[in-house]
Amino acid sequence: AMTGLRRNGAIAPGGSCRILPCADGHVAVNLARDSDWQSLDAWLQTPTNPDWDSVMHRVRGCDRNTLIERARLLELAVVDAQPGTAEVNHWFAVNHAVARARLPSKPARVIDLSSLWAGPLCGLLLQQVGCEVIKVQGSQRPDGARLGSPAFFDFLNGGKQQLTLDLHTTAGRHALRELLQDADIIIESSRPRALRQMGIHAEQLLQEIPGLTWVSITGYGRQEPEANWIAYGDDAGVAAGLSALMHTITGRWMFCGDAIADPLTGIHAALAALADWRTGGGRLLSLSLVGTVQFCITYSNNVRQQTNPDRR
After folding, report:
1. Is residue 237 in a domain?
2. From CA 296, how far away is CA 55, in angstroms rounded?
3. CATH number at residue 173
4. Burial group, residue 35, by CB count within 10 angstroms (0-12, 13-18, 19+)
């Protein structure tokens, strides 16, 4: 309601993601950045005009696996719209753990390094339960959500302390490391290699800072090769099976909500962060957009079967 977006069938409400027919099924293609459009020729292996009609025409002649494999090499968000059924009963993973600290006696200090929607929503919810939240952005690469609705960005981030650092400089990276040393909870939503390239390792900080809780939000998890796959809220929902489920029910291809994986993951991340920190911290909690939606689908199916076992 805040952004005025509406459901639009096989076109995501935000417009950057579409479910397209291909030679052996359907794929969801998310071209959210200018650089994505510039990669079309390499992805489709032929000169392609930068418009959706041309993309649809080229995609129609390719098979799903080829489209997805090439897209991953080019860091494009392209997924199978018919992923099959995956029963997921856990919505986070503990990727690293150290000895827990004494239970906290004061509100948590949260350093929010995340961008877009899921991570900032996690930070907002933690702020609303009394945490001090500091949002950190790179001066050379600010939060991409600033390019969207100003009202929505302010809703997610307006109440947080704001800090901008030039992370391309030694001084900026040093300032960030100093800031992280005083954190109780760290939220980040980059692929694991991004912070490692700046010399920031979650596992090392967990050893150094007693009681630290590190929340990692990714598209597909921190394990290779999935750690390198790019994802946004719309295509992650499709990859998890939501659009296939909607197609089974309605006979039409459509998106379920606007970037649905983002709010679902943000809510779950806030719960995980607060629960871990309040019980002594010391964990690297990994949540993925796709895995969280898969869990929600599994949970919904289980509840439906328990309350109405005859329903199909």
Report:
1. no
2. 32
3. 3.40.50.10540
4. exposed
In whole angstroms, what separates CA 134 from the centre of its chain? Answer: 20
Within a domain: 16: no
How many structural domains is the chain composed of? 1
Supply the range of the domain harboring residue 154: 93-222+262-299
pTM of the complete model? 0.93
Cα 200 to Cα 133, 217, 230, 245, 305: the distances in Å are: 20, 16, 20, 40, 45
The residues near 294 (Cβ < 8 Å, ≥ 6 apart) are: 86, 88, 240, 241
The string of pLDDT tens digits covering residues 180-239 is 999 999 999 998 899 999 999 999 999 999 999 999 999 999 999 999 999 999 999 999
Tell which residue, 12, 96, 77, has the closest CA to residue 290: 77
Residue 161: helix, strand or coil by DSSP? strand
Per-residue pLDDT reduced to its tens digit, 19-55: 999 999 999 999 999 999 999 999 999 999 999 999 9
Judge whether 41 lies within some domain: no
Residue 217 lies in a domain: yes
Quickly tell me which residue has 């957009």 as its tokens.
289
Take residue 154 and report the two structure tokens written for it.
């302010």
